[in-house]
Amino acid sequence: VLYAAHLGKRYRQGEVWIDALRDFTFDFPPGVTAVVGPSGSGKTTLLNLLAGFDRPSAGEVYLAGRPLHALGEDERAGVRLAHAGFVFQSWNLLPTLSALENVAFPLLLKGVPRRERNQRARALLDEVGLGHRASHFPHQLSGGEQQRVAIARALALDPLVLFADEPTGNLDSAAGERVLELLLGQARGRRRVVLVTHDLEIAARAHRILRLKDGRLVEVRASP
Amino acid sequence: VLYAAHLGKRYRQGEVWIDALRDFTFDFPPGVTAVVGPSGSGKTTLLNLLAGFDRPSAGEVYLAGRPLHALGEDERAGVRLAHAGFVFQSWNLLPTLSALENVAFPLLLKGVPRRERNQRARALLDEVGLGHRASHFPHQLSGGEQQRVAIARALALDPLVLFADEPTGNLDSAAGERVLELLLGQARGRRRVVLVTHDLEIAARAHRILRLKDGRLVEVRASP
Ligand SMILES: Nc1ncnc2c1ncn2[C@@H]1O[C@H](COP(=O)(O)OP(=O)(O)OP(=O)(O)O)[C@@H](O)[C@H]1O
Ligand SMILES: Nc1ncnc2c1ncn2[C@@H]1O[C@H](COP(=O)(O)OP(=O)(O)OP(=O)(O)O)[C@@H](O)[C@H]1O
Ligand SMILES: [Mg+2]
Ligand SMILES: [Mg+2]
Q1: By the 8 A CB rule, do A157 and A80 touch?
Q2: Which of A77, A95, A222, B53 has the most neighbouring CB atoms within 10 Å?
Q3: How far out from the chain centre does Cα A177 lie?
Q4: How many contacts, defined by CB atoms under 8 Å, are there between A and B?
Q5: Whose CA is nearest to atom 1 of ligand 1?
Q6: Which residues surround ligand 3, an ion (CB under 5 A)?
Q7: What phi and psi values does residue A117 have, to the nearest 5 degrees?
Q8: Is-contact B15 B31, C-beta < 8 A?
Q9: DSSP 3-state of A150
């Protein structure tokens, strides 16, 4: 379902090369895989490559059996829409859409009829405790509220793989716990959740933890 | 230096009124004041009012002796530039400026000569561990790196009052500790630091903690 082999990403800055990710190999089992590591260690880069937002400089990545590394941008977007949800580190809500419309957006792209998609979006907003704010726009919501709308949106298509980049960074303990339970609940059957977090207590709740350092996978630890 | 009396902010949504902040009164002593509370409890709203980004619906706020509640937008901006630094929850770096230029920007506004402002900006980037990334643009930096550039920028004018909204949310422990030490070091003499954080360990390092709930100040606790 989600597999990376010798994945690497390098950026060039004038005379300098930055190896954001190097030789990453991992076959993601079902359940929640937490990814931890210092700022700048390659976590977001890894998620972006696994979800096909970017192409690797080296290596291969397969999502739902599709070879993302060999696909063009539109094809990667298609695979992503069909199989993955993504919670961005910077939320990326569409500012001209309400909370409800943001959450419903993936469903709109998929061609789901309006009534059904609004029902689904409303149910998801309820799950993240924001049902009463469905008509509000991102600028009218707090940071943590925006983050939760982003999470609801990532779940809209009930994805096979959910990528979440720091989904609790702006949330207090209670709101963070609610989101974490949602993410853990998401990881059923064949589903995978890949969760980047700096919060080691959150990471400890995952089924396994991958630790990155300077763009390399330096430790894989299964939770007891 | 920083004083609020019966401060309130209310937003209107169609038929609904949201009281984001209610009857907040506090005279900020020197040192670090942490502000904690659940998502949506009014923390960012409070910071925005204290720093003059927004006008209160009720009450008064004084920054460096100036009555922000009674000033127009441009005057509030002038007071802020002269006396305060601000780290936004969403970082708000200028995407077309390099890290160095972002940090130097307040100095540019203040009319500091180029050589001096670049020296100052470079020194600040060194302090947050990003001296080697001065020429990179925000999109070329990780989330935590962007956050640290934002922090460096907030310190550019050595402000009397520093407002920091979740400055460590995207940072690992080591980077977060480095930033916290910077903020604690900032709070010398008459200076104030107002620090919003969900991280209770971070809050415990402040000189006092204010706790908000549903827009109200429900607890003030001095650290031992
Ligand atoms: N422009 C606005 N219009 C309407 N409501 C708003 C606006 N800005 C904030 N609010 C609402 O006011 C309340 C307080 O918002 P605020 O951003 O201060 O919360 P916060 O404590 O910073 O939350 P978080 O921890 O999630 O960042 C929230 O319910 C929010 O949705
Ligand atoms: N577009 C880019 N161009 C150049 N360098 C980049 C680019 N994107 C990321 N980098 C660099 O690659 C490294 C890894 O970045 P990445 O965003 O993956 O880190 P991260 O682990 O997510 O960090 P954080 O915890 O701060 O979010 C960093 O040094 C970053 O500055
Ligand atoms: Mg990141
Ligand atoms: Mg906030």
Answers
A1: no
A2: B53
A3: 17
A4: 78
A5: A140
A6: A 44, 89; B 142-143
A7: -70, -35
A8: no
A9: helix
